[in-house]
Amino acid sequence: MPGPSVRRPISLKVYSITLSLLILMVIVTALSARNLRSLNNEVAALSNYYIPLDQQAGSVDALVRQQIVHLERILLLLQSGKPDRAAIEAEKRLFDQRGVNADQVVDSSLRLVEEALSSKEISVNRVALSVLKRELPDIQEARQNFHAGFAQFLVEAVEGNPRSVKVVRDAILRDRDAVNARLEKVIVALQDVVQSSARRAESEERRAIALNWTITLIAGVLGLVLAAFITRNLVQPVRRLLTGTRAVEGGDLSVQIKASSSDEIAALTESFNTMVAGLREKERIRDMFGKYVDPRVVSGLLEDRLAAAGGEKKNMTVFFSDLVGFTSLCEHLSPEGVVRLLNRYFTVMSEPIRDQKGILDKFIGDAIMAYWGPPFTGEREHAALACFAALDSRARLDAFRALLPEITGLRRGIPDIGVRMGLASGDVTIGNIGSELSKGFTVIGDTVNLASRLEGANKEYGTWILMSEDTRRLAGDSVEAREIDAIRVMGKSEPVRIFELVGRKGDPNPLGQPYEEALAHYREGEWDAAEKGFASLGNDKPASIMLARIAYLREHPEARRADGVWDLTRK
C-alpha cells in the first residue's frame, strides 16, 4: 500500500525558518550598516573639517587679539614722554608676525573648506561651508585693513601730527571691531555646524541603539512565534505519537491520532494509525478465535512464534477428563438443555486449566483434552501445573453439582455425576496437524494416547485422577500421591506404573503408605500379606479391586505375571 503523500516536508519548513532568520539578519545588517555609515560620516566631518575649522577660527581670533594687545602696548609706549623706539619696534614686529600667521591660518581654512566641498567620501553641510567660504576672505580683508591702518597710524605718530594720529587711531579701532565682528560671526557659525553635526551623530547613535533594540525585540517575538510554530507542527505531533505509542504499549488499541500537518510526521502518524488498525484487527481475530483456540496459540500463530508447519518434539504433560453420568443425565434433557449443560460444564472446568497456564486443546463430546509445556509453560513446571489443574477441577465439581437444577431445570431425579481425569508426561509432537483445507494446532503421540487410557483406567480402579510414573516424577514433592498398580494399556507394549493424585503437598494421604506396602507384597506374590494389607484399608476402592484380583490369581495362578504387570483389556 503506498504511503501517505508528503506535501510540505520538514526539510522545507526548516529551510523556510532558516531563510526567514537569514533575511532578518540581512535587514538588521543593512540597517545597522546604514546607521553606522551615517554616524561615521558625521564623525569624519567633525574630525576632518568642522572641528579643525573651528580650531582655526579660534586661532585667527587669538592672533587678532594678540595684534590688538601689541597695538595697545605701542599706544602706551607712544604716550610716554620719551618713547622707547626699540620697544615700539619689537612690538611692531610681533604685530606683523601675528598678522602673517593669521593670514596663513585663514588661507589654510579656505583650502580645508574647498577640500570639504569637493569631497565625495564625506557628506558635509555644503550650505554652511559655502557661507564660510565667502566669509573667510572678508575676515582676511578686514584684518588686512586693520593691519594697514596700524601701519598708517605709526607713520602719523612718528611725524607728530596729533590730529592725524587721532583720526588714524579711530580708524584702527573701527577696523579692529570689524575684524572681531566678522570673526565672531564665523566662530558662531562654525560652532553651530559643529553642534549640529554632533547632534546628528548623537541622533544616529540613538537611532542605531533603538534600531538594535527594535530588531532584537522583533527577533525575540519572531523566535517565540517560530518556537510556537515548531512546537505546534513538530514537537506536539511527536508528543502525541509518543503518548499513543505508550497507550498501545499499555494495551489500549482504541488510539487514533489526528494528523495536523502534511510533512513526514503526518506520514508517520498515518502509518502509526495503520499499524494500530492492524493490531486491532489481529486482536479481533485473537478474541474471535480465542473462543475456539487458546488465545496463546492464536497469538503464537499470528506472530510466527510457533512451529506451525513442520511440528516440534517437546516434553509435555497431557490431560484428559470425562464426565461420568453425562449419558444418563442427557436422557432427561432436550438438545438445547444438553448444549446448555455442556457449555456451563466446560466453562467451569476450563477455568482451572487456564488458571494453571494450560492449553485447552479440544472438547470431545463431554471430554476435555488439554496440555502443558514449552513454550506456554516452563520445562520443569508443566507436570505440577497439570496436577494442580486436575485437583482444582475436582474441587469445583461440588459447586457444579449444586448448579445442575438451575442448568437442567430438573428438581429431582438428577443422576450423580463425576469427572475422571488422566495425566501423562512425555515426548509429544506439537504443531499444525490436518489437511490442506482444515488444520488444528494440537499434540499427538504415545503420551497423548496414554493420558486418554489412564482417564479410562479410573473405571477399573474406582479412582478419579490417575497419572503416569513420569508425571509423578516430574511433579515431585509438589503433590501427594500413591502408587496404584503397574499396567499395560491397550495399544502399548511397555508397562506403566500408575499413581492416584491425592492432593497438593501437605494434604492428608493416610492410605498412601499402607497401600504401597500391600502392593509390594502383591508384586512378590505374597498373597497373604498383600490381602492383609489391602483389607486393612477398609472401603478403599483400589484396595477392593486388588483383593478381588488376588482371589482370582489364587484360583488361576497361570494368569500371574512375574513382573506383576496387569493388562487392561478395555480402553
Please characterize this protein's 3D structure.
The protein has 571 residues and is an alpha+beta fold. 65% of the residues lie in helices and 13% in strands. The protein has helices spanning 10-79, 85-118, 126-159, 162-249, 264-289, 295-302, 326-330, 335-355, 382-408, 446-461, 469-475, 512-523, 527-535, 541-555, and strands at 312-324, 359-364, 367-372, 418-434, 439-444, 465-468, 479-488, 496-504, 566-567. Strands 1, 2, 3, 4, 5, 6, 7, 8 and 9 form a nine-stranded mixed β-sheet that branches. A hairpin with a 4-residue loop joins strand 4 and strand 5 (439-444). Helix 3 (126-159) runs antiparallel to helix 4 (162-249). It is rod-shaped. The model has no long low-confidence stretch (mean pLDDT 82).
Keywords:
571 residues; alpha+beta; 9-stranded mixed beta sheet; 14 helices; 65% helix
Silhouette: rod-shaped
Instruction: Tally the helices.
Output: 14
Low-pLDDT sequence parts: none
Tell me the span between the first and last alpha carbons.
56 Å
Proportion of strand residues: 5-15%
Radius of gyration: 62 Å
The H/E string reads HHHHHHEHHEEHEEHEHEEHHHE
Beta strands, count: 9
Please summarize the sheet with the most strands.
9 strands, mixed
Brief synopsis:
With about 575 residues, this protein is α+β, with helices and mostly antiparallel strands. The chain is built from 14 helices and nine strands.
List the helices and strands and how they pair.
Layout: H1 10-79, H2 85-118, H3 126-159, H4 162-249, H5 264-289, H6 295-302, E1 312-324, H7 326-330, H8 335-355, E2 359-364, E3 367-372, H9 382-408, E4 418-434, E5 439-444, H10 446-461, E6 465-468, H11 469-475, E7 479-488, E8 496-504, H12 512-523, H13 527-535, H14 541-555, E9 566-567
Parallel strand pairs: 4-6, 7-9
Antiparallel strand pairs: 1-3, 1-4, 2-3, 4-5, 6-8, 7-8
Helix pairs in contact: 1-2, 1-4, 2-3, 3-4, 4-5, 5-6, 8-9, 9-11, 12-13, 13-14
